[in-house]
Design brief:
The structure holds two protein chains of two kinds. Helix content of chain A is 22%, strand content 37%. By secondary structure, chain A is α+β, with helices and mostly antiparallel strands. Chain A has two domains: 214 residues, PmbA/TldD fold, CATH 3.30.2290.10; 228 residues, no CATH class. In chain B, β2 and β3 form a beta hairpin. The chains are: A alpha+beta, B alpha+beta. The interface between A and B is large, with 79 and 77 residues.
Chain lengths: 447, 463
């Protein structure tokens, strides 16, 4: 970590009079293994590092990056960032952050244990996953892929305006994708397990989820079009919350792209909806000690009992809104500038398990996966229409499997029509935790 | 980029522990982009990345490593990491013979991005912003983006290939938000080519901005899309993504070999309406998915996948072709030197037919006319796909009538291909980004106006 801070410090110290420089330096090491039919199909090991340099001069911002820490490439990026700034429009709100004296929380997101495992152990794990899944059900005809992957990453951000932070984390995961066949019909399903190191992985859960999700769809047909109650599986809820988080970005509000702009303190969701973004929760895979601008992470209440409480901000958007940052700067890596984003959204859970929620639904559908999210959900207008597959719910019980149908509504309406949140919170590697969610009045289109 | 001598040494080291095949892919890429948003030139970005990826194939196993260190020592250490998959120690030295270099350089007509002033790039965006905002008083927000990349690649392998290429790509996009009594609506347009800045001699950016703005405004008065199964007419050039998703992915040889495609074992069979001829073609001049060679050093080619409804062949990369002892079709592509190549589409398109688009609409009593599709997604094992309509209208009694709000279409690839009953003569290709296994590559998708007899439309109104 210190090494990266030194590199970042050296870049930031090259500021000319009047210039603000931010250097973001990142390093990561990854292993990725895919097995197929009892043999290694692909094994890849890599280390990479890079730097992103942001310069603000006279309220104009420029950016450049290099996918290496080689000195000549860093010099190139510094010179380009400087040159790029001279072409940008002056914007009085632009400027790098200054320390706010909020102390960072201690979060344990790095496991030394990960590096103690050999590649052979990781290969064995993937092979065991494949074998377990293949033997889980005679209808599992093949395992399209079984994977093991891990990543250790470290980043440092230093500015000449006093910001200085570095943070690190490890991840380890297994995923498998099953193909189930019965009576010449094929269905697929996936399962996974994620942790911060190998000992936190649950191999049997990954295998049984993939097996169950593929086999329970066998015999699926198109449902009859109707308006009904939908029970979203935790994974699907994660996707929905991820979309909603975009509408809660202060940047989107300022630029007139949020459907929640101007609705602060209004009832935007049903009373049982309380949503917080808390990257200081170590269970969240999006947790981190600092945000991408180097501010200590903090919990931000967004919706409390259905009432909109606030939005997420980084330095720039907060300044424009006349507020202070919520430490919600995120970045996709060293090759992009920070933007505003949620990292650890969490819906306050209810009291019922998924099976208890099912018993309360007379006529509905359990949606286990959705598709076409990037094309079918418009986070600006709120229009929502996605492909889905799952199982019908009849008189409080799971009934026949259904596929090749769409579910449609609007984000605004869905939030108002949430009637239950489950108790089955599942931290999925995403910006939001999964949880079973029951929403009424959704249009199901099939035949 | 790297001498043949060093390449030979690195490849020899990569197979020194036994391994049938080794490859080195070197990439030197510079990219730049500019973003205009909220009435301001928000950001210019420049990026540089350089490195090499080395893979070694031992039996059924591929070992891979990459490095940003292009010195001989750096490359040899990556070769060592990649060959570590060869668990048994092999036979010592192996001589690697390389063919005479097959080197491609850019033609003089190409205006390389680095030769173009940043000011000219920004001016395009400012102009699009101005045009879009002047289209209507209900335009509330405009963002416009420009991007270019210049990439030099070198590919060499133990089969003797030694090839280099220079590739330049340029894109521009505009996104508009309109505001009215019904809330907000959006419109988006893009143009992208395997060309340099000279592309703006051909691309009409004024038209792009106007189209995007008009689309957003028109949707303010749109009614909810129907819910249910209806005939769908896809406008030429708008819906190539349907064929990319609905059957293109299922024709990639990696899915075939893994039994995860509905098209496995169907070569020679009628898999589509006889009106359908589907081609993947990396040689179409200047299109977004075009390149002289693929990322395995193989010349791009035109591959007929479906001819008059009959499945003729799949798309192949080097690894899968070797397994079946046949030639690659030039479809081995990768996102960067940090990624393994795999079977990818280039420009995938439906060959045009003879009907006039107007006639197809006139002959549709009740249905949906799709003027623009967004992205899509497919499950290759089942053929089930979805894709989003971002501009659509009702067809009533043979006429295009009211605009519809955004919604997804859902269907099954093999079924849709059989249910195409009209193909028009107004072919065009649109650019897109194809994601597979976490890697993104530029592709083109093309088609003429077609009619599908029935597709499920995921709206909220009773059809």
């Amino acid at each position: 970590m210190d090494d990266l801070e030194i590199v970042a410090e050296k870049i930031a110290s090259q500021a000319k009079p009047g210039e603000e420089i931010e250097a973001f330096v990142a390093w990561d090491e990854e292993t990725s293994i895919r097995v197929y039919n009892g043999a290694i199909e692909q094994l890849s090991k890599s280390q990479s590092s890079g730097v992103g340099i942001r310069i603000v001069n006279n309220h104009r911002q420029g950016f450049a990056w290099a996918g290496t820490l080689d000195p000549s490439s860093i010099d190139f990026a510094l010179a380009e960032a400087r040159d790029n700034a001279s072409f940008a429009t002056e914007d009085e709100y632009l400027g790098l952050g200054v320390p706010d004296n909020i102390a960072p929380k201690t979060l344990d997101l790095w496991r030394d244990e990960l590096s103690s495992h050999t590649t052979e152990e990781k290969v064995s794990l993937a092979l065991e996953l494949e074998a377990t899944l293949k033997n889980s059900d005679k209808r599992i005809k093949s395992v399209e892929s079984a994977n093991y992957g891990d990543a250790s990453s470290i980043a440092a951000v230093v500015t000449n305006t006093g910001m200085r932070a570095s943070y690190r984390q490890t991840f380890s995961f297994i995923t498998a994708h099953a193909i189930a066949v019965e009576n010449e019909e094929t269905q697929t399903g996936g399962g996974y397990s994620v942790g911060r190191t190998i000992s936190e992985l649950e191999l049997n859960k990954a295998a049984s989820d993939a097996s169950m999700r593929a086999t329970r769809l066998l015999g699926a047909s198109k449902p009859t079009s109707a308006r009904m109650t939908v029970l979203f599986d935790p994974q699907v809820t994660t996707t929905l919350l991820g979309i909603i988080s975009g509408t809660l970005s202060g940047e989107a509000v300022i630029k007139g792209r949020s459907l929640f702009a101007g609705r602060l303190n209004e009832q935007v969701a049903s009373q049982i909806v309380s949503l917080v973004d808390d990257p200081t929760n170590p269970s969240a895979f999006g947790a981190s000690v600092y945000d991408a601008e180097g501010y200590a992470s903090r919990a931000n209440n967004l919706i409390v009992e259905g009432v909109l409480q606030g939005f997420l901000y980084d330095t720039y958007s907060a300044k424009r809104a006349g507020l202070i940052t919520t430490a919600s700067a995120v970045r996709g890596g060293f090759s992009s500038t920070p933007g505003v984003g949620a990292r650890a959204l969490y819906l306050t859970p209810g009291t019922k398990s998924q099976s208890e929620l099912i018993t309360s639904i007379d006529n509905g559908v359990l949606v286990q996966s959705i598709s076409g999210v990037h094309s079918g959900v418009n986070p600006i207008s709120g229009d929502f229409s996605v492909g889905a597959e799952g199982l019908l719910i009849r008189s409080g019980r799971l009934a026949q499997p259904v596929k090749e149908f769409t579910i449609a509504s609007s984000l605004q309406r869905m939030l108002q029509e949430v009637v239950a949140v489950g108790n089955d919170v599942d931290w999925i590697p995403s910006v939001a935790a999964g949880v079973s969610l029951v929403v009424e009045g959704i249009s199901v289109s099939g035949v | 980029m790297i001498s043949q001598e060093i390449v030979q040494k690195v490849l020899a080291s990569a197979v020194s522990r036994g391994g049938e095949f080794a490859e080195i892919f070197v990439e030197d890429k510079k990219s730049s982009s500019a973003a205009f948003d909220d009435g301001k030139v928000e950001e210019l970005t420049s990026g540089v990345s350089i490195g090499a990826g080395i893979r070694v194939i031992v039996g059924e196993t591929t070992g891979f490593a990459h490095t940003a260190d292009l010195s001989e020592a750096g490359l040899l250490s990556a070769a060592e990491a990649a060959r570590s998959v060869a668990m048994v120690s092999g036979s010592g030295t192996k001589a690697v013979a390389l063919s005479a270099p097959n080197e491609h350089t850019l033609s003089g007509d190409i205006l390389v991005p680095s030769q173009v002033g940043k000011k000219s790039k920004i001016e395009l965006l400012e102009y699009m912003n101005q045009i879009a905002r002047s289209t209507s008083g209900s335009i509330k927000q405009v963002s416009a983006g420009y991007g270019d990349s210049y990439r030099r690649i070198l590919v060499a392998n133990t089969d003797g290939v030694f090839a280099t290429d220079e590739q330049v790509r340029t894109r521009i996009a505009v996104s508009v938000v309109a505001f009215g009594d019904t809330g907000m609506q959006t419109g988006y347009e893009t143009a992208a080519f395997t060309m340099g800045f000279e592309m703006f001699e051909d691309v009409n950016i004024e038209e792009l901005a106007t189209l995007a703005a008009e689309r957003a405004v028109r949707k303010l008065s749109a009614r909810p899309a129907p819910s249910g199964t209806l005939p769908v007419v896809l406008q030429g050039g708008s819906g190539g993504i349907l064929f990319h998703e609905a059957c293109g992915h299922g024709l990639e040889a990696d899915h075939i070999i893994k039994d995860s495609s509905v098209y496995k074992g169907k070569v020679g069979e009628l898999v589509a309406s006889p009106l359908i001829t589907l081609v993947d073609d990396g040689t179409v001049s200047k299109q977004w998915g075009t390149a002289l060679i693929d990322d395995e050093g193989r010349p791009s080619q035109r591959n007929v996948l479906i001819e008059n409804g009959v499945l003729t062949d799949y798309m192949w990369d080097g690894l899968r072709a070797k397994k079946l002892n046949r030639a690659s079709t030039g479809n081995g592509r990768r996102q960067s030197y940090q990624h393994l190549p795999m079977v990818r589409m280039t420009n995938t398109y439906l060959v045009e037919g003879k009907e006039r688009p107007d006639t197809i609409i006139e002959n549709t009593k009740h249905g949906v006319y799709v003027a623009r599709l967004g992205g899509g997604q497919v499950n290759t094992a089942t053929g089930d796909f979805v894709f989003g309509m971002t501009e659509a209208y009702l067809i009533e009694n043979g006429e295009i009538t009211e605009p519809l709000r955004d919604a997804n279409l859902i269907g099954n690839g093999p079924e849709v291909l059989k249910n195409i009953d009209a193909v028009a003569n107004d072919f065009s290709i649109t650019p897109g980004t194809c994601g597979k296994d976490g890697q993104s590559v530029p592709v083109g998708c093309g088609q003429a106006t077609v009619r599908i007899t029935g597709v499920t439309i995921g709206g909220t109104a009773n059809g």
